[in-house]
Amino acid sequence: MKARLKILESFPDRSFNLQLTGHYHSYNELHYHAELELIYVIEGTGTLLVGNRIEQVNEGDLFLIGRNVPHMFRFETYIYQNPLLQLGRMDAPLQLLTLHFNPDVFGSQFINLPENRFIQNVIKKAEQVQQFYDGMRNELVTMLNQLLKIESHGRLFLLMQLLARIAEGKEYRFLAADTNLAAYNNADETRLTKIYLYTLNNFHHTIKLKEIAATVYMVPNAFCRYFKQRTNKSYFDFLLEVRINHAQKLLKESDYSMVVISYESGFTNLSNFNRYFKALTGSTPLQSRKAYRSLAR
């Protein structure tokens, strides 16, 4: 499967792009680009698929995605006043502050100067995709907002300060270890995108193997081999991760009973939900809800 190469818009009056927008630049598409991507979610919720990981995306999240790292954001487009019955549909808010920067604009001689080793450090760590938190996230967001307003003569200086802060910071976690673009087959351009989107749109219900295989015009056996080769996991392991990821979101954000959360996450009975949830997270749904609530206090 080939993730799409995204050619990002360039501007003659600047060496990097920083935009405050109400949409993502590559909607529901697995893609990669030559630029580093630092993205701050001001408003909105959704899902990030990168490498072999599925991550919830929430308001206040800040991610750094490396060069040529295949990734896909799927942001929620609607919210409901009554989510269970899907009544009172409204457009979901989305506001993003996104920096795209290609280190090649500096030239290899500049990047390889001893004083600039921190730039190489940023590039290397971004290959595993970073999520920043606490004080470091707040500092980086402040610097992004300053970059948005600063006069052109100060932009590069502040960008270098931003990169240096990323290089020296400790308050982050890696999201993905396996993000190698070479692992993708150039012959298949859209298959994984179709599989991911179909799964994210339908995981609440039973998804049969024949059904998901048909979305990419494969027979079930060939589909299973294909998916395992591309993601290093079975399709049903992936589906299970999507469902547990959604259950964690509901445990954090709602007061629904365990039975309702189980059903809304695509499980047909509570015992299976409890068993799989603990297998993937190391704790029961009830223990997780208590932990989320204690952190929120």
Automatic annotation (TrEMBL):
What lineage does UniProt assign to this protein's organism?
Answer: Bacteria, Pseudomonadati, Bacteroidota, Sphingobacteriia, Sphingobacteriales
In terms of PROSITE patterns, this protein maps to: HTH_ARAC_FAMILY_1, HTH_ARAC_FAMILY_2
* InterPro entries registered for this protein in UniProt: AraC-bd, Homeodomain-like_sf, HTH_AraC, HTH_AraC-typ_CS, RmlC-like_jellyroll, RmlC_Cupin_sf
* A UniProt-annotated Pfam family: HTH_18
Q: Which UniProt keywords apply?
A: DNA-binding, Transcription, Transcription regulation
* Residue ranges of domain HTH araC/xylS-type in the record: 193-291
Molecular-function annotations in GO: DNA-binding transcription factor activity; sequence-specific DNA binding
| UniProt keyword annotation of Transcription regulation present | yes
**What is the protein's name according to its record?**
AraC-like DNA-binding protein
